[in-house]
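Hello K.,

You asked for the raw outputs rather than the summary table, so here they are, unedited. I folded two proteins back to back in the same session to keep the settings identical. This is the first:
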Amino acid sequence: MTDATATYTGPHGPKPKRRLSPTNIMLYGTLFVVAVYYLLPLYVMIVTSLKGMPEIRLGNVFAPPVEVTFEPWVKAWAEACTGINCDGLSRGFWNSVQILVPSVILSIAVASVNGYALANWKFKGSEVFFTILIFGAFIPYQVMIYPIVILLREAGEGISAVTGTNFRLMGSIWGLVIVHTIFGMPILTLLFRNYFTSVPEELFKAARVDGAGFWGIYFRIMLPMSLPIFVVAIILQVTGIWNDFLFGVIYTKPDTYPMTVQLNNIVNSVQGVKEYNVNMAATLLTGLVPLVIYFVSGKLFVRGIAAGAVKG
């Protein structure tokens, strides 16, 4: 029995570390240097996009603008020339939106069902199928470019049921949507399978006992619990599809070029004066969408990676 009259000898345990210990100074110092290294180019882009060309020609790249002007942003959006068209990035922006939205929805919808089936509904040969699917994630895109060109050309010709005109997948937005959906499938299936594997099996068995089927369990149990991994998939797909240049320039045509291809045409234009402020504004406009999505859902992205991407 413990003696209630025992003398109190003070707190026990390790002594709290000093806030400014050498280890902390080195850690935060390294983080500060790395942050400056990555933020400095962004700072230069922003201040350059807010300057006029006479001020840029003075050569002080790091100086803030003496007179702030948004004219380069307006010109980059609506007036900059990309070939024979001088409507800026606006046309490419809407092309990118039309490519992005169906690509993200289709790839995530199909991959989530694939991952759910491979995790909870084992069938004969499922592991072999999963291995083959994941193997596709490691095939270089460049190897598949020409075969996909042939497939889109041969399989995508016909008459549109809506307009009644000739329709071709090669060179159209929907052809590029199919390409992005297919190439996003392997890694997304891996993410969803690992996440659904981490869900307690008892929930799945209880739903089966209650009579729920394949789609009932998917929509009523799996989807409500899977917000973090869906956010991870959305961020990965939005970033990859929006920033894509190679597929955009190969599988579309000038009228349907995405924003990145038009940005390349603006920056690498050899006609007229090189307008660095317009180039910087155009670059910032192009990268704005994935940047905003990441900052809005960054916490869920980390949760999804920690919960499902490293399990399985």
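The second followed immediately with the same parameters:
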Amino acid sequence: MEKSKRLFCFGYGYTSDYLGHELEKFDAWALAGTTRDNDKRARLRERGVEAHIFDYQHPLADPSVILKGVTHLLISTPPEDEGDPSFNMHAQDILKIPSLEWVGYLSTTGVYGNRDGEWVDESDETIPSSQRGSKRLKAEEQWLSLQKDEGLPVHIFRLAGIYGPGRSALDSIRAGVARRIDKPGHAFSRIHVEDIVRVLMASMERPNPGAIYNVCDDVPAPSHEVILEACNLLGQIPPEIIPFEKADLAPITRSFYADNKRIKNDKIKQELGVELKYKDFKAGLRGCLEAEDYATKTLFSGMGS
């Protein structure tokens, strides 16, 4: 039976994969997307995802055919200095898709820059203080220009720090790389990948072209509190706290501590009716551990005696 809805993801990564698995529960959806890795393309195709190689050196070979029938488009490709690669190489092809109902761009709360711990919402000025944030803001502006000038149904999702099964403090502790860095007054906002999917699906059901949404949980928190909670869940002794000024941090890690802000998420609740499954990092980490237990039980139950 022919599918009535078709999702295409530029950058079929961690979040896109979770969204795809959720949509697969409904018979109407066909899934497609891009990757930069040939092995991953093969794995995606084995699962029924129509996967294509895409990067700056490899634009889509025949976009009119590959994008035919796409109703929902999600963009999560990392931007370069010139902006978003999918925009730069395929904006005109996307504008020619007559079936397109919804476009989502996954951005970052890094576009707000440093606010010295203050709360920010979608109406606040974007003043990125990092190169990553500046690139994301440029990509946002590119996609929103198509909404304003061409009527493309673009939605921007500013994601806080993403975590979930296989990508959480639990994993860094097991790998022996977790550190508890204390920078007084500093907090990060986070979001569990399952709740990102809830937000995206709610937006698909209630399109509002041009809308911008902060996507985060209810409780910003210092990273050392997250590591402590993860250690407690795993029954491990937490590492000693290291004062920020004494921590030997890689430049990219230190840059994360340069921005200090607390992200408001009222809009996803009020406009989209989203109820978060994991309202804070404690619930989220428990969810990660439960998902691991479920996966283990499922694996061994299928192995027989």
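The longest strand covers residues 29-35.

Happy to rerun anything if the numbers look odd on your end.

Regards,
P.
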